[in-house]
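Q: Given only this backbone (184 positions), what sequence would you predict?
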């Protein structure tokens, strides 16, 4: 029972870490990366649909991304969604069959803003990990009558190690992303 609680906590913390890394990938650096556009939601026949499901995304150049819709009738909606996407400030052009997205050169101030965004996302991930730890600790405390205080105490120490490892992994990912963002 204790091992189940710890395994579940470890798995959920790993998922939080992966979600944080995915969020970090959506904060742009100097290059046009298709991952930046995967989560942009497009109004497709009244349904919010991720851009990655409606179009092919390819890099034409370092700062230019070509969006090729699978359904040409969705071209205007795709263009509108990219223009309205937060944190992109991209120049969008449409030639009737594809959408060209040109990302502007990053200024020092804009890079610092992106670092702040990444740090905020990292703090959200840390809070998520701490909430997982709290829930797991509550479950362990509920098992005290069945397995005893000593077993629960040992498992709580193991839970703390798991939590520390997850938070350290988030911190490492933040450092890497900050270095990537500040690199000129």
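A: Predicted residues:
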């Amino acid at each position: 029972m204790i091992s189940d609680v710890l395994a579940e906590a470890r798995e959920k913390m790993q998922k939080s870490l992966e979600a944080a890394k995915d969020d970090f990938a959506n904060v742009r650096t100097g290059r046009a990366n298709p991952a930046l556009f995967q989560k942009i939601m497009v109004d497709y026949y009244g349904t919010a649909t991720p851009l990655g499901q409606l179009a092919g995304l390819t890099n034409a150049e370092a700062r230019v991304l070509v969006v090729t819709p699978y359904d040409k009738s969705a071209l205007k909606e795709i263009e509108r969604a990219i223009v309205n996407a937060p944190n992109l400030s991209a120049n969008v052009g449409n030639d009737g069959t594809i959408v060209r997205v040109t990302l502007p050169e990053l200024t020092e101030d804009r890079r610092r803003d992106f670092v702040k965004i990444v740090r905020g996302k990292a703090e959200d991930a840390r809070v998520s990990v701490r909430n997982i730890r709290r829930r797991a600790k509550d479950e362990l405390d509920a098992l005290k009558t069945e397995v005893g205080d000593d077993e629960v105490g040992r498992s709580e120490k193991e839970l703390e190690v798991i939590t520390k490892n997850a938070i350290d992994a988030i911190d490492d990912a933040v450092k890497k992303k900050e270095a990537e963002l500040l690199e000129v």
